[in-house]
Specification:
Chain lengths: 424, 113
């Protein structure tokens, strides 16, 4: 806290003298857009700002991680059919695009008045428009057991792909046959609605091959499977009989990491050899800290024509951190779509023109129910000028009829093409 | 394109093109709108209709405008079988489909790296 305050005070003071001059001369020629977060949202925004403006915008992309690791497909690492390296893409090509500068740093704060983004290294980046794509943060403060020393090393989330994905796979490998893998699913909204159920399929797939006496116990904070419910339940019944134990309306309020016990609101206790707690989530810290999380202090409300925050002008929020429109999931595909609407709007706004008036967005989430077979959910969302929000187009969208290998191929096409569309 | 001295606004031109559904030179505004609309398809079909190497989907960039538009309409009406496109195509109006098709078919798009 003190450190951040120090950075704010000294950083702003230090740069103030030169900012006025620099921005007035630079603004005329090359407008500055700073993007925080190089995931599916932020990287797509940077890339499309560069492409669609012909490199005429000065885009700075701030990201602390050395490479992009995809959350979609990361459940396959738990199932054993993919390695983390298969889901990792470097930032080199994106960073070499015309107009894009990558800064490997953590963003720590925003000065709305001075239009500056503060970085952990004490430097400040001036912006004409700021895009925050910080993803989600985990609300461990709501689970007292998770604040105990060592609890978060033992009870993993694996809900941001990376070290935790690999560590959870190791826990599954070390688990004796006959043990229980317990997953706690938070109440919606959370990142990736079908993700927990796909994960259940992947772990069941692994158990079926290697540990057939083991079980997956799903403790769902929701009343029913949140996405593709009928399809997932059919898969569990037909492909993984006796392996998946689904328990709806189990609202986790605490965890004892040492004994591997998950406790519900009603006092029910469920024990597992491996416990995977997907924590409740909120907009990433940089957005919340900038005062933009104006819906239940959790999510950031935006104007869907531009993704500009309704709380602060010149700051746009995209991806999982926003308060979603009706039937809009928090997904990678959706973040990629937010980014494009936002980039197109910013190009117009920087030229003192109104953003395009009728944006359309799609969503497609493929879920692997085994190492090969896949099901999808898809939707199309169009701007409704009267209601000032994005609405699912009536009659559009839907789910697969059944799992298929063909959709498995399309899922891999999706992954490779969206990675290129986001990062190359 | 000679139009007997009529001065058409961009909006009127758009209507005219939509009504005729004929391949003509799209305006810059049409191309921009088509590019933004196509960007909703890029996650599976590749940026600007150019999928990455090894994709099982054919490149859409550079295909004839009529074929692209009629494929989308066939998906929308259910006459062309699909795993997912019949559900997605229903999210687009005929005017939007024409804009996407014109964008993908334009030589400027196929020549772009």
């Amino acid at each position: 806290m003190k450190r951040r305050q120090f950075i704010k005070t000294v950083g702003v003071g230090g740069i103030l003298g030169s900012t006025t001059l620099r921005s007035s001369s630079a603004n005329a020629a090359r407008p500055k857009v700073v993007v925080v977060g190089a995931g599916y949202g932020g990287a797509t925004a940077a890339r499309h700002l560069s492409m669609w403006s012909g490199g005429s915008i000065d885009v700075t992309l701030v990201e602390p991680n050395p490479a992009f690791i995809s959350c979609p497909l990361s459940n396959l690492v738990l199932g054993g059919s993919r390695q983390l390296a298969d889901l990792t893409v470097g930032y080199e090509r994106l960073g070499s695009r015309s107009g894009i500068t990558m800064v490997r740093e953590m963003a720590t704060g925003v000065s709305h008045d001075k239009r500056l983004l503060m970085l952990a290294n004490g430097k400040n980046l001036p912006y004409d428009r700021l895009i925050l794509s910080p993803g989600v943060d985990f609300q461990y403060d709501r689970l007292s057991g998770m604040r105990q020393p060592g609890a978060r090393e033992r009870v993993l989330h694996a809900w941001k792909a990376g070290e935790q994905t690999v560590a959870l796979r190791k826990q599954l490998e070390a688990m004796p046959d006959g043990g229980a893998f317990v997953m706690s699913i938070p109440q919606a909204p959370y990142r990736c609605p079908p993700g927990p159920y796909e994960r259940a399929c992947q772990v069941a797939h692994y158990f079926k091959q290697s540990k057939p006496k083991s079980r997956v116990i799903l403790l769902d904070g929701n009343e029913d499977v949140v996405s593709k419910g009928a399809l997932f339940k059919k898969v569990w019944a037909e492909r993984y009989p006796g392996l998946v134990d689904y328990r709806p309306s189990f609202n986790t309020v605490d965890v004892d990491a040492k004994s591997g016990t998950v406790v519900s609101e009603l006092g029910d206790e469920v024990q597992g050899v491996v416990v995977n707690l997907i924590p409740p989530q909120a907009a990433g810290a940089i957005a919340a800290g900038a005062g933009l999380a104006n819906v239940n202090r959790r999510w950031c409300e935006v104007d869907f024509l531009s993704f500009e925050s309704t709380q602060a002008s010149h700051i746009h929020v995209i991806g999982d951190a926003i308060q979603v429109a009706p039937l809009m999931p928090k997904s990678a595909h959706m973040a990629n779509q937010h980014a494009k609407v936002c980039a197109a709007a910013i190009i117009e706004l920087l030229a003192d023109r109104a953003p395009p008036s009728r944006p359309v967005l799609t969503n497609t989430c493929y879920s692997f129910v085994s190492d090969k077979d896949v099901i999808h959910v898809t939707s199309v969302h169009a701007y409704d000028a009267q209601k000032k929000t994005l609405l699912a187009v009536p009659g559009s969208g839907g789910v697969s009829a059944m799992p298929s290998e063909l959709e498995g191929r399309y899922a891999m096409d999706w992954a490779r093409n969206i990675w290129a569309d986001t990062l190359l | 394109m000679r139009l007997n001295g009529f001065v058409l606004t961009a909006a009127a031109l758009l209507c005219w093109q939509g009504a005729q559904a004929q391949p003509g030179a799209p305006t810059k505004a049409d191309m921009d709108a088509g590019r933004r609309l196509y960007a909703t398809c890029a996650a599976c079909h590749g940026t600007d209709g150019k999928p990455v190497a090894g994709s099982s989907l054919p490149p859409l960039a550079g295909q004839p405008r009529e074929i692209l538009a009629s494929s989308m309409k066939a998906f929308r009406e259910g006459s062309r079988p699909a795993t997912i496109m019949h559900q997605i195509a229903k999210g687009y109006t005929s005017e939007q489909i024409e804009l996407i098709a014109a964008y993908l078919a334009a030589p400027a798009n196929s020549e772009r790296p």
